[in-house]
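Hey, quick one: can you model this chain's 3D structure?
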Amino acid sequence: MMITAGKIAEIVKGELLGCAEREITGVASLKDANEHQVSFLGNKKYQHQLADSRAGVVLVSRDMAGEERGDKTFIVCENVDYAFSQAIMVFAPPPVRFAPGIHPSAVVDPSVKLGRNVHVGPNAVIDAGAEIGDETVIAAGCYIGHEVKIGAQCLLYPNVTVMYRCILGNKVVLHPGVVIGADGFGFIPTPKGLVKVPQTGIVRIDDDVEIGANTTVDRARFDKTWIKANVKIDNQVMVAHNVVIGESSILVAQSGIAGSAELGRGVILAAKAGVNGHITLGDGVQVAGTSGVVKSLPAGAVAVGTPAESQREFMARHTLPSRFEKLAAKVKELKAEVEELRRK
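Sure thing. Here's the predicted structure for all 344 residues.
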């Protein structure tokens, strides 16, 4: 079946401006697209690329609908990024399917409770007392520890580790190399050296959480480390013991949260941001990349720098040297004028 611009507009629920019958065979960036491909322009910062683009169809926001189209077809969307994601799926290859069953090389303890249509891949190990929900995928090389509970329709990619007694909700996605439930980092200095603090708690992960490759979430010293529903975590993120992360928060690559910190709903930590232990970030807090938060922040705060401070404080402090130079130059100028007046 031929995919037309009109069909794309129906799929993304956008307003068509231009030729509905233009044939579309794929998606590409504005820079690389040809006349039979669909692209997108969601940020005015990249508006200059539109004039030179050969894209046949461009998804645009409403405030860009008035731009010069030339021979292009525009589809006006309320959310361009989301709409383009829907367009991508039209041309994407079918998703990989994991057939239900247990691979002969997998080791599954007889006490394990498996739901319907569970897939257990090559060399996976599921230890005693674990429970796996319906249609969950345990891919090659995964380790599921004693008494772990995993909900329905979860996807654990290869080489994921979920340690003993941890709990995962439904539709949780763990990418390769994720480690859930390793011991929290706790040691007490004594005259005989460092003594390990027992880490007796668990990790609880609620529904619809997705965690990126090689991210680690430590078990609690007591009670639980808790990642609430719909949280999205990037690759190589560190979540320490007894941390609580509120619903729909986003943790970007290489960010880290120290022990017993609590993040509210919808918090965003940009890349390489750090959060000190035993502090609270209110709902909707945003922390800029590489910033270090050392004290609690109220809901809606935006933090920049190390130690993190408000945008206003950050700009005031960083513009101070140039302001001082201007002031020093003005003082020098005034001193010269005073000396000139004295000579008269």
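One thing worth noting: The longest strand covers residues 37-41.
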